Amino acid sequence: MHTGRNNWYRRVRHGLLVGATVSGLAGCVLAGPQAAAAPGSRVLPEQAGARVLAARTGTHDQRDAMQCRQGWRLSVPSIGVNAPVIKLGGPRSGDIAVPTFAQVWDVGWYRFGAVPGRPGDAVFLGHVDTYRGPAVFYHLYALHRGALIEANLGCGHVQRFYVRWVEEVSKNRFPSREVFGRTGRAKLWLITCGGQFDYATRHYLSNIIVYATK
Q: What is the pTM of this model?
């Protein structure tokens, strides 16, 4: 775990992460590609197409999948997260949409990444807080190596991942190639805002990044 985690924890508790505007949150979730606030829609199994079928264990019956109307959920039991997943758009390069102010308790899945469980980088974004208080990834910094993350793809199809590391990373050092690069492994990333909050620009200066594998 990052050596500055305890210092960041103290800054959280002293209220420096409270008071962000929507634009501030949108501008800090990712450093590259850039982030932009845009509404997302619930992810249903059929919306991810054949990739979801291949990611599931057990049946590969497409008719079964089409009949499954349960949305995705992301669960991180050790920090109390059990949130609906929304689909985030944006071009393959350039701006990436992030959850809006009205969706601070949802987790966003970057649809141009991998479906959880398939080879590739499955990227999930979530807000840390707003001026009203904590949001879905408020306690993301507190995760430890080995913590369980479950991506529920609907109708009992669950992909389990385990945390390998947690880091606070300056925006100008965001590891874009690692998070969005090509890989033959099934990887999962959780990303939120962190570090100090710049009241002049209404942006956080860092990201909290969680890396997990199966």
A: 0.74
Give residue 5's Cα distance to chain centre: 19
Is-contact 187 122, C-beta < 8 A? yes
CA 143/CA 166 separation, integer angstroms:
7
CA dist 202 and 175 (Å) reads: 22
Residue 34 DSSP symbol:
B
Distance CA 207, CA 34 (A): 13
Domains and CATH numbers, the chain: 5-213 (2.40.260.10)
Q: What is the pLDDT of residues 93-150, one digit of tens each?
A: 555 777 888 899 999 999 889 999 999 999 999 999 988 899 999 999 999 999 999 9
**Which residue(s) pair with 73 in the sheet?**
84, 152
| Contact status, residue 97 vs residue 106, Cβ threshold 8 Å | no
DSSP state of 37: E
Q: How many CB atoms lie within 10 A of CB 61?
A: 11
